[in-house]
Amino acid sequence: MTESSRSGGGAHLGYPFDEPVPLSSSSLANGEQIGDERTLLLVTPGLAMATAALQTRVSSQGMAASCSSSFMGLALSPSRSLPFATLRRPLTISVELKRWERKEVKPNSLPVTQTVHVKVGDTVQVISGADKKKVGEVARVYTHNSKIIVKNINLKTKHVKGKSEGETGQIVQIEAPIHSSNVMLYSKEAKVKSRVGHKILEGGKKVRYLLKTGEVIDSAEEWKKINKKEKKEDKK
């Protein structure tokens, strides 16, 4: 062995080699010999394992340091804290109206009445719905919701229970209310539907009339007929 190998510098393996010979992990693990006939370096398996463990530890520490200082090639500053964005969604509140909730009322707790262009006893024609173009007579007016009942119009089936124990139930048809905007006044003489108008007679009485035909609806004779019919129905 040469003087350089005896001194234990480890940089050169000896003459005539001017450059150091690297030791790979595979060669150390297999215990291969490095050098020529004049300079030989034998590595035992125990020394190979210790050297490989040391290289693995150094490489892991280097990777941890690089990961902590950079991410995807960007430098990270440990002192800064990343801001967190808070998402605020709009709060929606839905309120469902109950059927038993009362409508708008007057100070005396009575429901607010709405103006209706038809009255009891008027002949009207349905302009929309399943009973379109049917003609009937107004039987009842509900001023709180602008609905009316027309005879033989908008019939609905109703199941009626027996009043006594032995009496059986029955199925009857009744007139369901419809909105007053779904009907127009009808002239039996001209057989046309028309909008309603208002005018004042010579005696100062305000009456309704049909705009198409000029027929007066609120005449004294008509009101007498209506009152007679109502009295007969009440007696029955």
Short description:
With 236 residues, the protein is of the alpha+beta class. It has four helices and 14 strands.
Descriptive report:
- One of its GO terms (cellular component) is ribonucleoprotein complex.
- Pfam families: ribosomal_L24.
- The protein has 236 residues and is of the alpha+beta class.
- It has two domains: 3-75, no CATH class; 123-235, SH3 type barrels, CATH 2.30.30.30.
- The protein is 22% helix and 25% strand.
- It is built from four helices and 14 strands.
- The protein has helices spanning 3-7, 25-30, 45-69, 220-235; strands at 33-35, 40-42, 70-71, 74-75, 123-126, 135-142, 147-150, 155-160, 170-175, 178-179, 183-187, 192-194, 196-200, 206-210.
- The strands form five sheets. A six-stranded antiparallel β-sheet has the order 10-7-6-5-11-12, with no helix packed on it. Strands 1-2 form a two-stranded antiparallel ribbon. It has a two-stranded antiparallel sheet with strand order 3-4.
- Strand 11 and strand 12 form a beta hairpin.
- The longest helix is centred in the first third of the chain and has 25 residues, at 45-69.
- It starts with a helix and ends with a helix.
- Residues 1-21 and 23-43 have low confidence and may be disordered.
